[in-house]
Amino acid sequence: MFKISDKVVHPKFGIGTVEAIEKKVILGEKKGFYVIRPLKPTPGNLKLNIPTEDNRLRYPIKEEEISQIEEILPLEAKDLPTDWQERSAFVEREVNTGDPYKLISIISGLEKEKNLSSVEEELLKSAWKFLIKEIAYVKHIKEKEAKKIIARALKKGRRSEK
Predict the structure, then answer these.
(1) DSSP letter string over 95-154?
(2) Which domains does the chain have, with CATH numbers?
(3) Residues 56-73: pLDDT tens digits?
């Protein structure tokens, strides 16, 4: 269970801060909600109400894990389905988890593909964006620097394949 002021990551909404934990009555049933303020300001200072039982909410990765990511990324290319529709569905499921290790695998796998569909290209961009934002937040660096970390690891992987 998260506490007030905890930093959390949601796969759809990114990083935010738990500002409150509230109980609300929904259809006659009392339910718990985390009130989360997204890290990036939103129009109208929108706050998210995420059910406390939403198991997709997690803490950001630890800084020590980023060096693991740098080591894993070149090695982690997942064998993706060859049929583009199956591959797109699989990639979408993995990207929507927001799990940094699954994102690594997807980035590494899709970066090796020659012919991506437009859907896959968008999912690849989404995976890059999500991972970049989390690494930048955790390491207290600019997103441009976080992108370089990922790109270096991918390049290292391509060199080791030759």
Answers:
(1) HHH--HHHHHHHHHHHHT-SS--HHHHHHHHHHHHHHHHHHHHHHT--HHHHHHHHHHHH
(2) 7-51 (2.40.10.170), 63-161 (1.20.58.1290)
(3) 899 999 988 888 776 766
